[in-house]
Amino acid sequence: MSAPRVLVAGGGIGGLAVGLTLHELGVPFTILEGAPEIAPLGVGINLQPNAVRELGDLGIGTSELDRIGIPALVWALVARDGREIYSEPRGLEAGYRWPQYAVHRGQLQVLLAETLRKRAGADAIRLDHRVTGYATHDDGTVTALGEHSDGTPWREHGTLLIGADGIHSAVRAQMHPAQPPIHWGGVIMWRGTTLAPPVRTGSSFVGLGSNRQRVVLYPISHPRDGLVVTNWIAEITVDDPEAWQTRGWFRKVETTEVVQHFADWTYDWLDVPDLLARADVVYENPMIDRDPVPTWVDGPVLLVGDAAHAMYPTGSNGATQAIMDARHLGASLVRHGLGPEALAAFDATWCEPISRLVLRNRGAGPFGLLDLVEERCGDDLDDLEAALPENERLEFMAGYKAAAGFAVEQLNASPPTIPPDAVVPLPRTSGVPAS
């Protein structure tokens, strides 16, 4: 017989948040990560106030987040001609009890990993352990199956398996072998960072353009010598449904390949072609998600993060939702104990509403406001107020924030997701299946 232990497939933001939560609750765990190291890869992401709150409850507060990012003050949509369509304060400026942060994704992952290792020990994260599948057993336990980078197979037995292995999840593929292929709606994204003067407030998230061609930009560092690290995403929509398959994933490209699509996007407050041309490095990727599945659970196995609900980044809440998954999972374990019942309760509560959010983001998320502007005004914004009144724009955004779980009144009034000093009662032993 073996002691209880939760296996976590994947050491990304979601998997690490699960590990930190399990450690907080006194639950033994092991994170199985396929990469040989956890490195600060990627570009910028946003953490909504609900996720910042949860990180604070985990002991990762604003002093730590300030090292890898900056609080966001304003969120704005600007038309192609430079006229503002919508703007609102964010984080503390909007009345939340917690800020919204724009951070470097890879640096956040490293921060979570370093924090977890300090608290739970170096062996809490096992690198070069790619999960390829799982086997469930009659006693309700599970074995994770995998390979090292040299092809050597391995097996790890546990009480539960949490699949946090991303959009290409092997755990999800086994759970739902007939799932449709990855969904692509025609948007090609280029992502990069550029050292540049801040725009607007100095910490503003700006979406500029239309739904078929836009640039999104925001700082992910505090100013130094009048400059900030500006994260940007340039997007175009193409009509060839096979285009992304011929271009590759996270393909490194020359800046000229991007600038050609935005060559005349110059304003008195922003020179877009200059911003794109001076990027440190540029990566191309299709904007993709997956169709929702009816359940994230198979007995002692649960999907979280992108493995459960990969979504378009239009709502800036992919990492936020992965963190929320970890915390809601922890709350379910506190209520139901360390077993499949807790996973089933989590699934019953969250699978349907978050699946709706996936489809809402596929419909452009908060950027859907640009669709309404184009539909009602075309290129003539002189009658914007008559065609799309301010109160309707406010209602549109309020509806999105409520669906994504960070409506200000709802969040401010809610109790902690996991009560202070909560622990999960552990069963004495966990059966080891016959080989």
**SS-based class:** alpha+beta
Give the termini separation: 14 Å
Would you state the CATH class of the largest domain?
Alpha Beta
Helix count from the secondary structure assignment: 14
Which outline best applies?
A: globular
Radius of gyration, taken over Cα atoms and rounded to an integer in Å: 22 Å
Q: What is the CATH topology classification name of the largest domain?
A: FAD/NAD(P)-binding domain
* CATH architectural category of the largest domain: 3-Layer(bba) Sandwich
Unreliable parts: none
**Integer average pLDDT:** 91
Topology, element by element:
Blueprint (H helix, E strand, L loop, with lengths): L5 E4 L3 H12 L4 E4 L11 E4 L1 H9 L4 H4 L3 E3 L2 E5 L5 E6 L11 E4 H16 L4 E2 L3 E7 L5 E6 L5 E6 L1 E4 L6 H6 L7 E14 L7 E6 L3 E7 L8 E10 L13 E3 L1 H5 L12 H6 L4 E8 L7 E2 L2 E3 L2 H4 L8 H19 L3 H23 L5 H10 L6 H4 L2 H15 L3 H6 L22
Parallel strand pairs: 1-2, 1-12, 2-8, 5-14, 12-20
Antiparallel strand pairs: 3-7, 4-7, 5-6, 9-10, 10-11, 13-16, 13-18, 14-15, 15-16, 17-18, 19-20
Give structural notes.
The protein has 435 residues and is an alpha+beta fold. The chain has two domains: 6-73 and 95-180 and 290-364, 3-Layer(bba) Sandwich (FAD/NAD(P)-binding domain); 183-266 and 274-288, 2-Layer Sandwich (D-Amino Acid Oxidase, Chain A, domain 2), CATH 3.30.9.30. It has 14 helices and 20 strands. The chain has helices at residues 13-24, 49-57, 62-65, 105-120, 170-175, 255-259, 272-277, 306-309, 318-336, 340-362, 368-377, 384-387, 390-404, 408-413; strands spanning 6-9, 29-32, 44-47, 69-71, 74-78, 84-89, 101-104, 125-126, 130-136, 142-147, 153-158, 160-163, 183-196, 204-209, 213-219, 228-237, 251-253, 282-289, 297-298, 301-303. An eight-stranded mixed beta sheet has the order 6-5-14-15-16-13-18-17. Strands 8-2-1-12-20-19 form a six-stranded mixed beta sheet. Strands 3-7-4 form a three-stranded antiparallel beta sheet. Helix 1 packs parallel to helix 4 and helix 9 runs antiparallel to helix 10. The model has no long low-confidence stretch (mean pLDDT 91).
